[in-house]
Amino acid sequence: VLQLVESGGGSVQAGGSLRLSCAASGYSDCSGYMGWYRQAPGKEREFVSIIEQAGTTLYADSVKGRFTISQDSAKNTVYLQMNSLKPEDTATYYCRCGAYWGQGTQVTVSS
């Protein structure tokens, strides 16, 4: 059974930065990628970014140029560096590995 544990969320002012981490324990090929999604109150969960095993990355237009996804395969960990944060980035951020989801970490950006 795979477990994903996110960390690094918190509260920052607009323009600030946060770095999220997602550590995977247990085995799964993650269907070839790991990624981050987010869900704001009253909204659907939405895609933020993914990184494939070979290193190819993909970003939602809303975060492109501000967020950077990376991975440390040796540590089975994926990161999301979030810069120039905006109030609209406020959400619970979830790590995904194939069919597996983490428990979520809250990010709050105040104006």
Structure description:
It is globular and about 40 Å long. Strands 2, 4, 5, 6, 9, 10 and 11 form a seven-stranded mixed beta sheet that branches. Strands 1-3-8-7 form a four-stranded antiparallel beta sheet, with no helix packed on it. Strand 7 (67-72) and strand 8 (77-82) form a beta hairpin. By secondary structure, the protein is mainly β. It has no helices and eleven strands. The mean pLDDT is 94.
Give a topology summary:
Layout: E1 3-7, E2 10-13, E3 18-25, E4 33-39, E5 46-52, E6 57-59, E7 67-72, E8 77-82, E9 91-97, E10 100-101, E11 105-110
Parallel strand pairs: 2-11
Antiparallel strand pairs: 1-3, 3-8, 4-5, 4-9, 5-6, 7-8, 9-10, 9-11
How confident overall, as mean pLDDT?
Answer: 94
Largest sheet: 7 strands, mixed
What's the helix count? 0
Radius of gyration: 13 Å
Shape: globular
N- to C-terminal distance: 40 Å
- Structural class of the secondary structure composition? mainly beta
The beta-strand count equals 11
Classify the helix fraction into a percent range: under 10%
* Low-pLDDT residue intervals, each spanning 5 or more residues: none
Which sequence of SSEs, written as H and E, runs from N to C? EEEEEEEEEEE
Strand residues, percent: over 45%
- Tell me the quaternary state: single chain
For the structure shown, list the relevant keywords.
single chain; 111 residues; mainly beta; 7-stranded mixed beta sheet; 4-stranded antiparallel beta sheet
